[in-house]
């Protein structure tokens, strides 16, 4: 019974470890690997809360652990990735600018955690740090096709959107994990193309993680239909 209740926390810790590994890969120049690990962290993040509810294993520990994992994987790791791929050319100024992202992200998480209202079923207040970090990872992954100025503008916008009061659709009514929906559709549509274009250079871990995650989503859809 204890093991079953610890499964969601294990996924959260896996998310945190993906963030740590992403920082290490980015520091060693393996930027594709670093970006993919952030995306895999998104997958794990989208699964832990749902599994906690399914297993009736919700806990204060799990919620606090989730926030700590998020600030590393979707705050610190993307900022390092942005620094090593682009902002490093500006020296200490570039490092300072890249460091703003986890600061805004931490403020957003703290504001959410102390909110008595939490979030509506229909929207988030401000862009979630998970989505913002995932967008930066995707921008880096396909950075060869995106001008640096566009990446810089999006980076700046995401910083302020995280702490904004803008209502962002949560997609909670969609029978899929809230953060993984867009990523899954994106990966599902482009996986074959990516495989053809980057075979031998693209990190193999994504070819393992993506089918597992898609199978998980299929299981949720089937379960949803049976219960309705």
UniProtKB/TrEMBL annotation:
- GO CC, one annotated term: endomembrane system
Coiled coil stretches, renumbered? none
Domain of life assignment: Bacteria
Q: How does it sit in the membrane?
A: Multi-pass membrane protein
* Location of the protein in the cell: Endomembrane system
Swiss-Prot/TrEMBL keywords: Lipid biosynthesis, Lipid metabolism, Membrane, Phospholipid biosynthesis, Phospholipid metabolism, Transferase, Transmembrane, Transmembrane helix
GO molecular function, a single term: CDP-diacylglycerol-serine O-phosphatidyltransferase activity
Transmembrane domains' residue ranges? 20-44, 90-110, 122-139, 145-164, 176-195, 201-222
Instruction: Decide whether keyword Membrane is in the record.
Output: yes
Q: Which reaction does it catalyse?
A: a CDP-1,2-diacyl-sn-glycerol + L-serine = a 1,2-diacyl-sn-glycero-3-phospho-L-serine + CMP + H(+)
Q: What is its EC number?
A: 2.7.8.8
Q: Name one GO biological process term.
A: phospholipid biosynthetic process
What family is this protein classified in? Belongs to the CDP-alcohol phosphatidyltransferase class-I family.
Tell me the protein's name: CDP-diacylglycerol--serine O-phosphatidyltransferase
């Amino acid at each position: 019974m204890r093991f079953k209740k610890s499964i969601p926390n294990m996924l959260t810790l896996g998310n945190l470890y993906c963030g740590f590994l992403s920082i290490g890969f980015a520091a060693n120049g393996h930027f594709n690997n670093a970006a993919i690990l952030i995306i895999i962290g998104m997958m794990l993040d989208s699964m832990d809360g749902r599994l906690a509810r399914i297993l009736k294993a919700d806990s204060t520990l799990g919620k606090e652990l989730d926030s700590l994992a998020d600030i590393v994987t979707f705050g610190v790791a993307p900022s390092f990735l942005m620094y090593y791929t682009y902002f490093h050319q500006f020296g200490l100024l570039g490092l300072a600018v890249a460091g703003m992202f986890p600061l805004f992200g931490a403020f957003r998480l703290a504001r959410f955690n102390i909110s008595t209202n939490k979030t509506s079923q229909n929207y988030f207040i401000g862009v979630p740090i998970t989505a913002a970090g995932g967008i930066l990872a995707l921008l880096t992954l396909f950075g060869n096709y995106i001008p640096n100025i566009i990446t810089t503008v999006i980076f700046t916008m995401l910083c302020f959107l995280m702490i904004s009061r803008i209502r962002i659709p949560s997609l909670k009514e969609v029978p899929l994990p809230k953060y993984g929906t867009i990523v899954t559709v994106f990966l599902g549509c482009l996986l074959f193309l990516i495989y053809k274009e980057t075979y031998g250079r693209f990190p193999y871990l994504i070819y393992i993680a993506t089918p597992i995650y898609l199978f998980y989503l299929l299981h949720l859809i089937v379960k949803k239909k049976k219960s309705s």
